[in-house]
Design goal:
By secondary structure, this protein is an alpha/beta fold. It contains 14 helices and 13 strands. It has a seven-stranded mixed sheet, with helices on both faces. The protein has a two-stranded antiparallel ribbon with strand order 4-5. A two-stranded antiparallel ribbon has the order 6-7. Helix 1 packs antiparallel against helix 8. The two termini are 25 Å apart.
Length: 459
Amino acid sequence: MRQRLTIILTFIVIIGVLVVINTFTYVKKEKLQDTELLPNRSTYNSGPTGTRALHDFLNESGYKVMRWREAPEKLLSKAGKDVSTFVVIGSTQLPFNKDQADALHQWIASGGCFVLIDRMPDDDLLPRSGDWNISSRIVDFPSFDLDPVNAAEMTKDVTPFTPIQPTRLTHNIESVMPSRFAGRLAISSVKRPAPTITSPGKPAQPGQPGSPPPIAVSPTEYVPVSHAPVVHIADREGALVVDYAYGRGRVIVLSDPYLVANLGIRTNDNLQLAVNALTGLGGLIAFDEYHQGHGATGNAFAAYFSGTPVLAIAGQLLLFVLFILWTNARRFARPLPLPQVDRRSSLEFVASMAELQERSKAFDLAIENIYSRTRRVLARYAGVNYNSSRSEIAKRIAARSKVDQQQLETLMRQCEEVINGEPTNWRQAIDLVKRLRELERKLGLRMRSRDARQAAENI
């Protein structure tokens, strides 16, 4: 048991040391404060620049929403078939590469709705709308000392925008309030060369030189180029909300993330505009979290404990267990003989003798073992020789104590008669032993304590 306790304590000490080491070496990443210069537009962020309020509102209102943590190429797979609307908000933490942008364009052309909410939309991310080009410019830029929590400072000198025509995107909207850093969208025409005439009065067929490039939806089907973008909300500086068709799908551009941010979504009809833009097609709404730095690139269990010392502690414990298993039954020195431990108890002899005496009814032997020791102690107490007569021993003891001489002499005579062969039974033997023990108690001899002390000194 002592050996097991040592092993358990060793394990506890080692685990404690590992925890202390990992605690001191763990450096918690300081959470960056939200600013308009470095915003965090993720739906996981509940700060002023985040969009968690919009995600939770749609989810609690019964709309199907999800956080898309895969690359855009997955939209073309089975996992993206249920997605109807794909939402990208703000300047993402990770940029879109060309393959991802092409996959997104192909998904839009097959019937998806792409909602881009950014002050300076990426030209490579927006698919070309036929002969039309969409550009953006920012009237005002945020400063370093700007407080994004202060709504009054964010919308200083801004006049609410009103719809310029009744459309699905402006349904139930009287006005929206962007920030003073909102971009202004401009639509311009891209000049193309005149189509080549192949026969009188007939333009070139699709695919021939001079014809507008078709948009491939399937290997055997083509869709004509989309129409011009439609402006829904604007002011004198430019448009705030624009949408256009692309293939079978639709592209919606909002030029200010403040419209859907946690701070700005409660202002005017900003929430209604977000609902109109994201829920037009119904179905599943996917918020892009892959480019916001929350891509599902690793194990979910490991991602849950990322940034904590738990994984390091688990790895160290695993190495420690493997080391124990490897060293199990390995000898590091010469073999030593096992210690020979006498496992027999001193009481085993007493119990065995008592059982033999009981079975053989040798009560005289039991009385002899006890009386011989008692007589020796009584003789010493009386100050006489062990071989002195019992009358003399009883007389001397009676003179030194309150023990009756006649009773003591009678007890000694009865014990000696049993020892010398007088018949007896177990009741009489127990009675004699009880009387001897009572005599020891009265005289204060305490034979058992003395015998135990002497036995301990002899070891």
